[in-house]
């Protein structure tokens, strides 16, 4: 690959930060994007290349300013790596509505804003690559992650439509990882959030980042790890069997049981975690 201009959202920590390291190590120019500029500046010094930009993807004005600045300075963007997002754990009744709206604004609409802002420039260039970091929760509902799952389902639908509309000029890849060992899980026990077999398969951040970077040149929808890939295939082929098995695993692993709706919201649930 030639030197590419690679814009990475959510680059201040976790998967996005590791993607930036891999991109820089391969000789490309990482454009680091996040709300907080301070950790981005430290990462830029570590990488020795690229540039950092402060941008809140939930703000159309911020995104507009970002595009103008990037195009003015670099003239193009070859690759969009959309990683900004967060999750809020808790039963459907426990997550406050403002967090439900926040996940939709960040995980789905934030990515859409970035894509729609840069897409005309990519089309003018004649080509472009987009890699969206979704989740296995965008392919199947996950207990205690209803709103997060919905935001990722929306991202999956948008990504698929985008591929159909603009391929081959614009290549779109989507990575759907299972649970990842990132700040997302600080203070939370994965065994409480996921059925046992899934909770025991936490992915390493570097592994996920490497898979994301591979999608630049081999754009497609990819589920990791392989065991969840098979689970999604079973879900698509035999949804009734999949639901029965998943429900049994979830019921066996959850402690304590979710409260009855009459008990009201549980203050120990609904904790917000950045991705």
From TrEMBL:
Any GO molecular function: oxidoreductase activity
Keywords attached to this entry: Oxidoreductase
Signal peptide: none
InterPro entries noted in UniProt: NAD(P)-bd_dom_sf (IPR036291), Sc_DH/Rdtase_CS (IPR020904), SDR_fam (IPR002347)
CDD domains in the cross-refs: 17beta-HSD-like_SDR_c
Annotated stretches, region: Disordered: 255-275
Gene3D superfamilies: NAD(P)-binding Rossmann-like Domain
Pfam families registered for this protein in UniProt: adh_short
GO CC entries: membrane
Family (UniProt): Belongs to the short-chain dehydrogenases/reductases (SDR) family.
PANTHER family noted in UniProt: DEHYDROGENASE/REDUCTASE SDR FAMILY MEMBER 7B (PTHR44196), DEHYDROGENASE_REDUCTASE SDR FAMILY MEMBER 7B (PTHR44196:SF1)
Protein name: Oxidoreductase
Native organism: Marinithermofilum abyssi
Source organism phylogeny: Bacteria, Bacillati, Bacillota, Bacilli, Bacillales
